[in-house]
Every structure is written in structure tokens, then in C-alpha cells.
Design brief:
The complex is a heterodimer of chains A (about 200) and B (about 220). Chain A is mainly α. Chain A folds into two domains: about 35 residues; about 170 residues, Butyryl-CoA Dehydrogenase, subunit A, domain 3, CATH 1.20.140. Chain A contains seven helices and five strands. In chain A, helix 1 packs antiparallel against helix 6. Chain A is elongated and about 70 Å long. Chain A starts with 8 loop residues before the first strand and ends with a helix. By secondary structure, chain B is of the alpha+beta class. Chain B has two domains: about 50 residues, no CATH class; about 160 residues, Butyryl-CoA Dehydrogenase, subunit A, domain 3. In chain B, about 50% of the residues lie in helices and about 15% in strands. In chain B, a hairpin with a 6-residue loop joins strand 4 and strand 5. In chain B, helix 1 runs antiparallel to helix 3. Chain B is elongated, with a radius of gyration of 22 Å. The chains are: A mainly alpha (about 200), B alpha+beta (about 220). At the A-B interface, strand 1, strand 2, helix 3, helix 4 and helix 5 of A face strand 2, strand 6, strand 7, helix 2 and helix 3 of B.
Amino acid sequence: MLTARRAGLVGCRSCGRVWPRQQRHCGRCGGHLDDDRGASLQRVWAWLIAGVIFYVPANLYPMLDTASLLTGDVRNTIVGGVIELVHAHDYGVAAIVFAASVVVPITKFLAIAQLALTLGRVRPWRRHRRHRMLAVVDFIGRWSMIDVFVVAILSSLVQLGSLAQVHPGPAAIFFALSVVFTMLAAQAFDPRLIWERDEAEAA
Amino acid sequence: MDAGLTAAGTTGRIAPALDGLIACPECDLLMSRQVLGAGQQARCSRCHHPLYRPRPEAAVKIVALALTAGILMVGALFFPFLSISAAGETHESSIFSTALAYSEGYLAPLAVAVMLLIVLLPVFRVGALIFAFGPLLAGRTPYRHAQIAFRLARHLRPWAMAEVFMIGTIVSLVKIGGLASVSFGPAFWAFAALVLAVGVMDNLSNDWTIWDALETTR
């Protein structure tokens, strides 16, 4: 298997053209020709750690502050909101919110860390699986923003005076930042690393 | 129909002309570029990543869909989005007021972020695609910065979250549930249609052969 790198070339990831290794920008589309895999891995770790750190206060502080005549003043964290939905028997929506705000972020942290830690230590036939894993992580990250939008929609809509009022809590900003940082971590992960490091090990 | 491309190394020599070669963006495999017919899909022969798939008239369709999305966005911004009523109290929200829900105190940066994710970035992407491909429709050569515009539009795609916002709306409606009755404003339907238009537009523009259209006419 001849890769662009072994041929002394560098491939443009946005349009596919190849250029001599020392070139910095693609002559066709102007995209940055990224050839430094070590820097890619450093960025992955930096964004991932930032994402994990911000995920902690995102779960400790309240996400939603509901004041209504029926229930009084209720401050819910992310998980608290899911529990409330379960008590209201809205299982489908509880599952969506739980998946988007808890399962997806935590799975992403673990998946990216595992991919980065085991580079070059995986049997060749597992490469396809790992490659697909990175693609899924990259695709699914943005869907975690659902809860941030839900809080915005509820806070702007439910303004019924003394009857019911909803306000956003501080967790929203931590959660949004955690999602953004994890998205950046997944984007910084160069999939060519998965194929190359394993190959170098096998050779 | 799939067409696996031949790995460049298998013939035992590297073609001297670099523009006849492509590298897989996912696994870096060097392959020779082949001309495909409409409807054929080129895949990387090592990692099976879909590489390109020529779509006839892609530029025309992209511009048409981008214009549609742009008009729908204007509607989505200036009509009421949702309205709620309970026990005689009514309240209406718009896309703007939704983003501004975070404008209190220390959460203000989040209001800017939400505005970016659901309004500004989608609008920017639509504008960039019209800028990049519009001149092609009139038979002119593309503007000088057409490549940059197209590259930015593709690069910003994960950050334009109109469809995530749409699912968020549905979750919110269920959350309000029995507490009050909610009705959809025209902006809701405009936004839903916009999500569809942008989806098709992105599907069309997610293709390397588009670069040929921008390049050959230069």
C-alpha cells in the first residue's frame, strides 16, 4: 500500500489533490496541508481534557430554573431534568435527553481517549472498526447541543408571569463549552493516524 | 454503483503528473484519479471512504437550494416561532428571543453562541455557496475568492446546527406537555423547510468533483 506520505507527497483533505511534501497550502482549493500528525494528537488531548473538565460543573450546577404556581421554584440539573421526564412518563423524550446529554458526551470522552491511547497497538483487521468509531464520534458530537437549545426555547417561551417562568441556569454555559471542546477534539483527530501508526507497527 | 479506485503503487511506478493522483483524506492511500459517469461513486480501496460521486448540474441545484434556504431564513426570523397559552396568559417567542434567552448577566456569551449556531452560520454558509457558484450559472468565471468561500462553507458545516435546534424544539414541546398549550407559528414551518433544503444542499456540495467546476472555468 503506497500512501501519499510514503511517496513524499501530502494529500489535501478538503479536495483530494496531492502536492510535494514541503508545500503548506493546496494549490487548487487553498486548504491547509496538514502533515504534522504529532501536533494533531496534541490538539486532540488538549481539547479533550478541556471538554472533560467543563463537563463536571455542567452536571453540578442547575441547567433549568422553573418557577410555577403548582410546583414552586425548582432548580434542575441535567440528570434532574431527565428524572423529572421519567416521573412524567415521557420515556421517549427522557431517553433522547439522557442520550444527548449524558450517554453521548461520556461515550465520546472514552472513545477519543481510547483511540488516541491505543494508536499503533491494534491488530490490522481492527482498523476499519476504529476508523468507523472515529467517524461516528465526529458525526454525533453536535447533537449534544440539544439540551442547550431546549433550555433556550423553554426560557424564551415559558414566560407566563406568576403562573410559570423558566430561566436558564449556569450549567448551560459549561455544558455548551464542553460540547464545543469535544467536537474540536474529534475534528483535530487525524484519521490517517489510525491507518499509519498501526502500519508502522506491523512493518 | 461503486467503483474501487486502483492504488497508485500497484503498477510499480508513480505517475509524474500530480494532478492525476488523489490521496484518501481518511487513510492517505495514494490512488490514480478516474473519470466516473453520473451516479457512480468512487471509494477508497483501502478504507472504503466515499471519495467522490459526480452529480450533474450540482452547482445549479446548490445555488437554487441556497436561495430557497436564504428566503426561508428571512421568514423564520421575522415571523413568530412558537406561542404558548395557559389560563388566559399568552406569550410568543421568535428565533431571536430564543437566542436572547441567555442574555441575562454571565450567560450573555451563550446568547451570542446560540445566535451563531442557529442563524448566523447557516446564513453565512448559504451566502458563501451562492457567492461561489452563482457566477457559474450565468456562464461567467467564478469570483477570485470562490474557492475560499466554498472551503469555508464546507468547513463550517458541523457548526451550523439548524437541524439540532429543530429536534430541540420538539423535545421542548414535550417538556411543556400538559402545563400549557403550544401552537406553531409560521417561523416554525419555515425553519423546518429550511432544514430540509440545507440537508439536500449539503449532500450535493459534499463532493470533490465540485472543485473541478470551480477550477476549469478559471
